[in-house]
Structures are given as structure tokens and as C-alpha cells.
């Protein structure tokens, strides 16, 4: 105990200096990693959950998982796909967790014509309209069009029938047309 207490801090820093430098370099690398991928992860989550606040929380969860696996991910060629998959899964889990709540809100009438008129550009109109879709339609539509998943993959991921996925995508497209052309 006494020998340990007499060890000066300078010896500690000399021994650990390389470790601290490496940790600082890894922190900066992870910050750069977040900056490079945060918009993609956020947009995946926002499109699926339709709520920007929830999407922010999910984005944070994705990057916490990425931080835990960063040594394996940093040199991976499939990191974007991994992040998209994690964001998709966490978003779907979030919706499943709060299914009763979002079913209640998705049954409310959708009025967005005045909001769309205030938006500039077609991309913003589309994003706003997607967020206003009923959840079942929005999730299926986003997974199909933005995540390039097949009907079968969507049905398996959501635990629903193939017919429900096709119906939700069809209804989602029809609802989008109505929302955008109001």
C-alpha cells in the first residue's frame, strides 16, 4: 500500500501516455464518425417513427450501440448498412413498445394542407406528408421505398402477413397522393 502511494503521477502519465493519446484519437475518430452518419441515421428513424423527438432519442441509442462496437466497426465496409439496420430495428421496436399510444393518434384525422403550403420544395412536402401517415402505412412504405426491403422482408420484420404489407403500402401511397395534392 505504501509503495503504491509513493508512485508519482509523472510515472503514471509516462506509462499511460500512449494509452491516453490513443483514447483521445479514438474519441476524435468517433466524433467524426457521428458527424458523418448522424443525418442518415436520424432520417431513417424519423421516417419510420414519424416523430422528430423520438427519432432523436433513437439516433442516440444507435450511436451508443455503435460506440460499444466501434473497434469492430471502424474498419468495416458495411458500417452504413449496419447503422441503417440498427436504426430501423430500434425504430420498429419503439413503435411496438408504444403501439397502443400510436394507434390512438394515428386514428385522428390528418389535416396537413396548410402545413404543406408553408413548406418550400417537394422534398420537405414529402417528408412532412410521410410523417403524417398512419403508422402502419408509414412504416411499411418507408421500409419498402427508403430501405429497399422486399414485401416478404417487411412482413417478417413487422410480424404481419404479406397481404397486410401490400395493403399498407398501397394505402400509404394513396394517402400520400391525397396529402400532397390538397
List keywords for this structure.
182 residues, mainly alpha, Rna Polymerase Sigma Factor, Chain: A, disordered N terminus, 82% helix
Topology-level CATH name of the largest domain: Rna Polymerase Sigma Factor, Chain: A
Total of helices: 11
Can you tell me the overall shape? elongated
E-strand count: 0
List the helices and strands in order.
HHHHHHHHHHH
Q: What's the CATH class of the largest domain, please?
A: Mainly Alpha
In round numbers, the mean pLDDT is 78
Low-confidence parts lasting 5 or more residues at pLDDT below 50?
Answer: 1-17, 104-119
Helix content: over 70%
Structural class: mainly alpha
Largest sheet: none
**Overall tally of structural domains:** 2
What is the H level of CATH, i.e. the homologous superfamily of the largest domain? RNA polymerase sigma factor, region 2, helix turn helix motif
Strand proportion: under 5%
Explain this structure.
This protein is 82% helix and 0% strand. By secondary structure, it is mainly alpha-helical. It has two domains: 15-97, Orthogonal Bundle (Rna Polymerase Sigma Factor, Chain: A); 100-182, Arc Repressor Mutant, subunit A (Orthogonal Bundle), CATH 1.10.10. Helix 2 crosses helix 3 (52-68), helix 2 (9-49) crosses helix 5 and helix 10 packs across helix 11 (162-181). The longest helix is centred in the first third of the chain and has 41 residues, at 9-49. The chain is elongated, with a radius of gyration of 22 Å.
Amino acid at each position: 500500500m505504501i509503495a503504491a502511494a509513493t508512485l508519482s503521477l509523472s510515472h503514471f502519465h509516462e506509462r499511460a501516455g500512449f494509452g491516453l493519446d490513443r483514447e483521445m484519437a479514438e474519441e476524435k475518430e468517433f466524433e467524426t464518425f457521428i458527424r458523418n452518419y448522424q443525418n442518415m441515421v436520424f432520417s431513417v428513424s424519423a421516417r419510420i417513427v414519424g416523430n422528430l423527438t423520438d427519432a432523436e432519442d433513437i439516433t442516440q441509442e444507435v450511436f451508443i450501440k455503435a460506440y460499444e462496437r466501434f473497434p469492430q466497426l471502424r474498419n468495416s465496409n458495411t458500417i452504413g448498412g449496419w447503422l441503417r439496420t440498427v436504426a430501423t430495428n430500434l425504430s420498429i421496436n419503439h413503435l411496438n413498445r408504444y403501439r397502443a399510444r400510436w394507434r390512438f393518434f394515428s386514428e385522428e384525422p390528418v389535416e396537413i394542407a396548410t402545413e404543406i403550403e408553408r413548406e418550400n420544395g417537394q422534398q420537405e412536402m414529402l417528408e412532412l406528408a410521410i410523417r403524417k401517415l398512419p403508422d402502419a402505412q408509414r412504416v411499411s412504405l418507408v421500409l419498402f421505398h427508403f430501405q429497399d426491403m422486399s414485401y416478404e422482408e417487411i412482413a417478417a420484420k413487422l410480424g404481419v402477413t404479406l397481404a397486410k404489407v401490400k395493403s399498407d403500402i398501397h394505402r400509404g401511397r394513396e394517402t400520400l397522393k391525397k396529402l400532397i395534392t390538397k
